[in-house]
Amino acid sequence: MLDVVITTIFPPTPAMQVLSDGLAARGGRLWVMGDRKGPPAYDLPAARFCTIDQQIALPFELGRQLPERHYTRKNLGYLLAIQQGAQTIVETDDDNAPTTGFWEPRQAQVRARPVQRSGWWNVYRDFSSARIWPRGFPLTHLTTSFAEPPTTTGLVTTECLIQQGLADDNPDVDALYRLTAELPVRFDPTAPPVALARGCWCPFNSQNTTFFPAAWPLLYLPSHCSFRMTDIWRSFVAQRCLWEMDSCLSFAGPSMRQDRNEHDLLRDFEQEIPGYLHNERIRHLLAGLVLTSGRTQTTVAANLTACYTALVRAGLLPEAELKLVAAWQRDLALACT
User: Fold this and answer.
1) Domain final residue pick, 94, 110, 129
2) What average pLDDT does the segment 147-166 reach?
3) Alpha-carbon span 82 to 216, nearest angstrom
4) Domain with 44 in it: what CATH number?
């Protein structure tokens, strides 16, 4: 059974109708976190809709502490899914429709092409010959990434507690790409997954991403950064913590199709500037941390706190973020009981 989590300010979209129908047919659940602006109900067969007032009334501290009118209300959807016995959480957005591959069984053990190198790796190159890169990839490394050949190593069974699926047509790219390059783009559906070994980095998003229980603490989305960086900076923290769990991040071919909601691309660009300026710095900062090996929830939580503390001390996030991280950890412990 799948538990899928979204947040939205829109009535059910055609993409969510398709997703909900598929979940209902398979006994799955669609957790929908509303906000002040948005529908009063979400009338889809698999939907578990939670209004902002219902979120505030939850036993979770974050219901009252998270900012309103904010994407990170999604954190409450993760907690509700976990509290209700989720075994696998998939997160997406309301403009992503599942394709056939989305419904294939998910397992933490993946047969994938390992990428064993240090530094940045443009994973989109492993699924497309187009000059394309994922949102959050440092612009200073683009030229180098296109000069490198795609991964050609043989398949190895690897544990990947976080797995990013790609999306066709309007994939997750930054505003600079959208302002200068062509869409739609289709990724190679026959290309096998790629797994990034320790020391290898690539941003992942919150639009078609699977988390397994040992990685529940790493679901946390930070609130005190720009909207376009919350999932990207989360992805860097998660990758760093995964290494201490002797696990890794994988990417797989397209299993969703995005019919993107209307965006102001210049506003998106403005929201992405902190990433253009600081993502390389964040990588070095997190890579240099001394964390604790292990995968108990206590150990992973301590590593998560250490990563966000480092970002706060570097002036990349305010002190207020640490209060939310602490509340997330208390709420997660409650959800898991």
Assistant:
1) 94
2) 94
3) 8
4) 3.40.50
